[in-house]
Amino acid sequence: MKALIKILTRVTTIVVLIQISFLEFNLGNAYYGILIVAFIILVFTGKKLQSNFLMVWLLAAGFLSILLNDIPSFFQPYQRFMAFIFVMGLIGPFITNTALSQLRVKLFNMLNQAILILVTLSFLGIASGFPLMVGRGGFSGFFSHSMLLGPMAAIAMLVAIHKAYSTDVKKKRILFLSTGALAFITCVAAGSRTALLAGVAGALFYYFKINHGRITRFVRIVIVIITIGIFSFPLWESYTERIMGKMAYSEQQGDLLVTRASLWKIRVREFSSSPIIGVGFASVDSSIRENRFDAIGGKVEPGSSWLAVLSMTGLLGFIPLLLLTLKYVRFLFKEKNAPMHAAFLGGMLFLFIVHMMAEGYILSAGSGLFFFFWLIMGNIENFRKEHQNI
User: Fold this and answer.
1) Do 150 and 123 meet the contact criterion of CB atoms below 8 Å apart?
2) Roughly how many angstroms between the first and final C-alpha of the chain, as a whole number?
3) Of 264, 157, 259, 240, whose CA–CA distance to 203 is shortest?
4) pLDDT the model gives residue 287
5) Residues 314/61, Cβ–Cβ less than 8 Å
6) In this predicted structure, what is the pLDDT of residue 17?
7) How many other C-beta atoms can be found within 10 angstroms of the C-beta atom of residue 251?
8) How far apart are CA 191 and CA 126, in angstroms?
9) Which of 78, 20, 32, 58 has its CA nearest to residue 308?
């Protein structure tokens, strides 16, 4: 069993990294095929199979949103729904057993290590002016797009911070904190304001939790970090060019959220038209002229994961997702038996809670960020069951 899980963990890590890397080697349906086979194997080889009621509710809402709506075939709602079930089933909190739980923990650790290395190499490439570091959207490093580099750098920053506070060796702590600082600068260079804000939100939760909610100590650490950032700003000011450009453009338009506001309005409009079941899983209202979608491949640009769930599956789908997220946040805030790990998982969760406000990938099974979000949710479920003896 251990050997099988080890092999499946490595294979899954490789296919996910290929999916998000600058190589942009499109695995196509092979990506889903590999993950589906892994899911089926682990479901039948593991013991103590359990399901999560809130996830069952969310899946039922997704299915009803397809069944009760007239969705254009190019959106491929049934295919996308099945992909969602299997990929999320492998890594998320929908189904758990002994084998799936082990894979999720190992996969989480392995991917975190890989992302930390790739982000660090991306910074070195960007700093040295290596031509391959500039890709779609500007600085993309070893990732397929700058908008992917941003959140990956934020994740790497949290990983580095956690590793720093998990060791008693002073040299290692300094090394990891320095790596975390480089990841922060890489996030700035990527130019994603949402990723930067999400990374900061995750770090704030982490520091708050490891200080056991002691406001004085927490504020002192935040002040020290801000002071270091201010005094070191001349060293990394050049990396702020793209994010400053975005801020200047938004100021000219008179709206800091100009790039997302129109999409948010459309999602609210779709929700208003069908508040209970939504307009359909992984689809948008094609009659709205301003909607952004690919009429050939069926890809959509929701502009927000939270609003996407609300508009696509209505309140029927949004409520279980909200309840599940709040349940995990509450657990991580209160967890005292393993506060360091709770802080790390909570920091990751808050990172995605904020990032998903402006990026819509929560239902997109082919997205690397989809994979990371649901893997985090799956690990929180494992952690919760382990410490509450469920």
Assistant:
1) no
2) 23
3) 157
4) 80
5) yes
6) 92
7) 11
8) 13
9) 58
Coil/strand/helix, residue 96: strand
Residue 253: C-alpha distances to residues 138, 158, 241, 256, 381 (Å): 22, 33, 19, 8, 43
The residues, ordered by sequence, that sit 6+ positions from 59 with a Cβ below 8 Å of its Cβ are: 85, 94
CB atoms within 10 A of CB 240: 15
- How would you label 50-71 residue by residue, b for 16+ Cβ within 10 Å and e otherwise? eebebbebbbebbbbbbeebeb
Are residues 203 and 161 in contact, defined by beta-carbon separation less than 8 angstroms? Answer: yes
Judge contact between 90 and 41, C-beta under 8 A: no
Whether the per-residue pLDDT at 227 is higher than 80: the answer is: yes
Tens of pLDDT along 282-326? 998 888 877 777 767 778 888 899 999 999 999 999 999 999 999
Q: Classify residue 2 as exposed, middle or buried by CB count within 10 Å of its CB (0-12, 13-18, 19+).
A: exposed
Longest dimension (CA), the chain: 61
Smallest Cα–Cα separation from 15: which of 42, 40, 39, 33?
Answer: 33
Q: What is d(CA 350, CA 77) in angstroms, rounded to the nearest whole number?
A: 29
Contact (Cβ atoms closer than 8 angstroms) between residue 88 and residue 59: no
Query: 53 φ, ψ to 5°?
Result: -60, -45
% of residues, the chain, pLDDT over 90: 62
- Alpha carbon of residue 288 to chain centroid: 28
Residue with tokens 């808050």: 350
Contacts of 369 (CB under 8 A, 6+ apart): 148, 151, 352, 355, 359, 361
